[in-house]
Please model this.
Amino acid sequence: MVNFCESGGNMTINFDNAATTFPKPVTVAQSLSEAIRKYGGNAGRGGHTLTMQTSEKVFETRNAVADFFGGEPENTVFTLNCTHSLNLAIHGIMQNGGHIIISGIEHNSSARPVYALAEKGICKFSIAEVGQNDDETVENFRKLIRKNTKAIVCTIAGNVTGQIMPYRQLASLCREKGLCFIADGAQACGILDVKMSDGINILCTSGHKGLYGPTGTGILISDGSFNISPLMQGGTGSSSFNLKQPDFLPDSLESGTLNTVGIIALKSGIEFVYEKTPAKIHAYETKLCKRFINQLENSDIIIYRNSNCSYVPVVSFNIPDMKPEQTAAMLDSNGFCLRAGFHCAPLAHHSLGTTDGTVRFSPSVFNTEKQVDSLVKIIKNHKKFRKSY
Amino acid sequence: MYDETEKTAVMMPSVTHAMKAKKIFSSLGFRSDIKRASGISQKGCMHYIEVNTNAENVTSILERNNIKYGELLRKRWEHDD
Model:
């Protein structure tokens, strides 16, 4: 399959897959279509044929997700997106107060709920700076642990530069100190072989990025060792005579009708990734990133990478004397979709010193070397193209 | 492996637990059905799973697989006829 879509008669190539992968596998589109035509019951509600068939399909995805990450289906919660999952986890663990530590490259999906809780006086938080190497980063977290620290929230891979964080070491630190380790897998799941057995207590991720599912799908997986208080209450299809919200997963965190169509199609996305394997996807996309970086090496382009660090296939760059938004507009007018700005991660830009933000190149398995070469050609010739931006 | 004359119905906390249980019972060769239990439980709408084996088997399999379950509804059925 080629990665282009028709847009006003022009061919558009998507290199903004870190925001959401596009195109999706054909099987995902087929599942979506089948789900909306055939599985019209409300999962978990009632006992008639339609609802039971839909419930079974939802369970199949739940089971596939649990298998993929080494969790249990009953501890696998469907949400709307990774932000939703992180809000459930952070509010659910911190609602009675305490102290929480986040990394210095967190996305707003973690940073904002933590900040909101602190602003209300419910909890305190600290930000651990990312060090020059993994040991230094872990040490920075360790130094911030207090008597009342309850949790560490850390992205597995940052969404601005793609830097892989020492999440397994942080999980060990949490286990040693009895803290809850909440991992943001938005940029890592489907690309790195993330497993609950890495020591993650709560894994939050989206379904529409590296898992190639539709938008409106998110996942929270708990290892069951920390109670997550629900952020909202409502109908779950279970214990319905009781005004008290169910206290067991997944129902405690799944109030209201699920996005059954999206969830059913998500299974096809996971099967697509499972078949290709995260290792091969990582290798292929990394090859595209290296091709991108190597071709720009002797140019004036600024690439935000550090040779001591490991990265998922995301590259942040800037063209000197050109605002990121101008660069993205120039590339867009030439048929390439890349995201510019702060990528909802102000902390990361504070660490990088990129006060105007960056432009982000993020390929998927559907991109080709030829597309990368065409993009590089435009970037290298920015002086020729930039005048009108 | 099991006695066809025996069926056990057990309340499940959620349809997810019921489906996980059904998958495990099926892998062990037991037939099972998930049914809605409105009006049966004082907790309101719930799902129960009906399995073609005795209560001891059902509960030990559920426990062995760490699946939460609720009350046993009936321990023994006679043939429908």
